Amino acid sequence: MTADRTVAPAAAIRINGVDCPVPADPRVSLLDLLRETLNLHGTKKGCNQGACGACTVLVDGERIVSCLSLAVQHAGRSVTTIEGLTDEARLHPLQQAFIEHDGFQCGYCTPGQICSAVGMAAELKRGVPSHVTRDLADEHVAPSHDEIRERMSGNLCRCGAHNGIIAAIRDTYAEAAE
Asked: Taking the model in full, what pTM does it have?
């Protein structure tokens, strides 16, 4: 009697609503899959060590740094990149707010900042605390300046657009809280 060595095909990763095959090489990072295989260049490779946040994407609605995550870990999951936040008709409200508040200079960190802020808003809605949080029991309260700065601290902007970034996030999610 021989063992059946049939291997089930790897599950796909749903990226921006499209099923994509899991790479055959288990060493491929999610970031490299996005940029090098799928040509989704919005997600940036900054430090490639998880310290800058330029590669932040959403996996099942939660923000992660894609450079530290292997693509195979996301089989059967849903990944949203900056390209997947908008439809062809209009920008995501946060993308529009970044434009209105001049939330970018060079723009390199912008995709990661926006994806991180979308994930941050979901965390606030779920009541996930931070070091600054006093009380998130009222989910209709807009996040404070300090709350946003704390929650976005994993996303670095080297050219100094932090004030515009914070203003864009605050205004976007203040309107959502009303």
From this structure: 0.89
CA distances to 4, 30, 45 from 78, in Å: 31, 12, 20
- H helices of 67-131, in order, are 93-100, 110-126
Indicate the pLDDT class of residue 132, thresholds 50, 70 and 90. confident
Q: Which residue has tokens 């990661």?
A: 112
- The domains of the chain are located at 13-84, 93-177
Give the other-Cβ count within 10 Å of 123's Cβ. Answer: 17
Strand partners, 57: 64
Q: Which amino acid is at 76?
A: G
Q: How many CB atoms lie within 10 A of CB 97?
A: 23
- The CATH homologous superfamily of the domain defined by 13-84: Beta-grasp domain (3.10.20.30)
Q: What is the per-residue pLDDT for 138?
A: 56
